[in-house]
Design goal:
With 407 residues, the protein is an alpha+beta fold. It is built from 11 helices and 13 strands. It binds adenosine-5'-diphosphate and magnesium ion.
Length: 407
């Protein structure tokens, strides 16, 4: 028996959020908005290194029903959380909001910080994006709030890609400064700027994007997402440690971001790092670690370019090798995989997947596998059986197709 996480239709999602609002706040909301979770095809841990990544927006979305109020009071309810919460928007600052309301209040705060005339509101949230599965339920929530507030307060930002880029920055600030999660900008960018039928090639150096046609069904392929349900408590600390290592390596090498090294410069950069941090350099024992981290980031950016070229050539069924190589690099050089992710990837490949890799930050969350469309069920069953044999908690599955952005 395999468990599938189905996406709600937009109508169902809107109806759920509106009904929750009416039930808790005793009135109809002014409107309903939603934003998608995402899956990243390739380009992991590259966003904060000024690199490239290739996410797309999922059919799974977070829905919000909202009514503005004529004060700074925010009242919040979520179908995924207990009770009604209240936050004073005027008092929001880093470290002041506990728990999930920080993602919502953070967006209102960041809009205000940017000079936009945002006031308080009542909000009801419901979502079919699984939490903490590496599919970015946090960005889905922020981006749904962002498009709701920009519409309600007439900010005129969601109508253009430029405005949506501004909203992306707002949501990133909310997550970094108010929710206190030091993530890069990939999740918010794709939730606000992804397009149906396309993967989003995102250049994190300047936030520019290119919509890359990504047609799975035309090639009789499907992208199977395996939610391992694994959550490792050290994930946040490890993420911060990787970011710090990348910053240290860039500083030692005298580059603004690791992106600047490029595949051509990789050999020299790795030799320089080993020298600068080895016995001849400052004597610290970090050389080997930094060499691994830099090798992952630089080769991963190269794999995004390779993947995009294959998609541009219509050779979708040939991207598997880049996915496999990405996983090995994340497992061995960046060291952010875990037993459950490796198990999912190995089992999917043994069952005939064309390629498979962990996706998202790592230490749990989800893996993706590119499979023949008529083999989705069989590969999922094989992965579930491998988890069962290993005595690991059963995973859940979803089939990912690229859908539209926050609206
Ligand atoms: P991910 O983004 O990979 O799903 P995160 O840890 O970044 O995982 O974000 C999950 C957090 O975002 C939740 O713990 C909660 O605080 C908040 N969140 C996401 N979706 C909702 C929701 N539907 N209702 C309330 N809070 C949510
Ligand atoms: Mg998140």
């Amino acid at each position: 028996m395999t468990t599938w996480i189905d996406a709600w239709s937009r109508t169902d999602g809107d109806t759920r959020a509106r009904a929750l609002f009416a039930e808790r706040f005793g009135a109809e909301p002014a409107g309903a908005w939603s934003a998608p979770g995402r899956v990243n095809l390739i380009g992991e841990h590259t966003d904060y290194n000024g690199g490239l990544c290739l996410p797309f927006a999922l059919p799974h979305r977070t829905y919000v029903a909202v009514t503005p109020v004529d004060s700074d009071r925010i009242r919040l309810i979520s179908a995924q959380e207990e009770g009604v919460r209240e936050v004073d928007l005027a008092a929001v600052a880093p470290g002041t909001v506990e728990g999930w309301p920080s993602y919502v209040a953070g967006v209102a705060w960041a809009l205000r910080q940017a000079g936009h005339p945002v006031r308080g509101f009542d909000i009801a949230v419901d979502s079919c994006v699984p939490y903490g599965s590496g599919l970015s339920s946090s960005a889905a929530l922020e981006c749904a709030v962002a498009v709701a507030l920009e519409d309600l307060f007439g900010l005129g930002l969601a109508g253009t890609d430029e405005g949506r880029t501004t909203l992306t920055g707002i949501c990133v600030r909310a997550e970094n400064e108010i929710a206190g999660a030091n993530t890069g900008g990939m999740d918010q960018a794709v939730s606000l700027r992804g397009q149906a039928g396309h993967a989003l090639e995102l250049d994190c150096l300047d936030d520019s994007v290119r919509q890359v046609p990504f047609d799975l069904t035309g090639h009789d392929l499907a992208l199977l997402v395996i939610d391992t349900k694994a959550e490792h408590s050290h994930a946040g600390g490890e993420y911060a440690a990787r970011r710090a290592e990348c910053e240290r390596a860039a500083e030692l090498l005298g580059v603004g971001t690791l992106r600047e090294i490029g595949l051509d410069g990789l050999g020299d950069a790795l030799a320089d790092l080993a020298r600068l941090t080895g016995p001849e350099g400052d004597g610290s024992a970090v050389a080997e670690v930094l060499v691994r981290r830099v090798r992952h980031v630089v080769t991963e950016i190269g794999r995004v370019q390779e993947f995009v070229e294959l998609l541009d050539d219509g050779r979708v069924d040939e991207v598997g090798a880049a996915m496999d190589a990405s996983h090995l690099s994340l497992r061995d050089d960046y060291q952010v995989s875990c037993r459950e992710l490796d198990l999912a990837v190995d089992a999917a490949r043994s069952a005939g997947a064309l390629g498979a890799r962990m996706t998202g930050g790592g230490f749990g969350g989800s893996a993706i596998a590119l499979v023949r469309a008529d083999e989705v069920e069989r590969v999922a069953e094989a992965v579930a059986a491998a988890f069962d044999d290993a005595g690991v908690r059963a995973p859940a599955f979803l089939v990912a197709t690229p859908e539209g952005p926050a609206a």
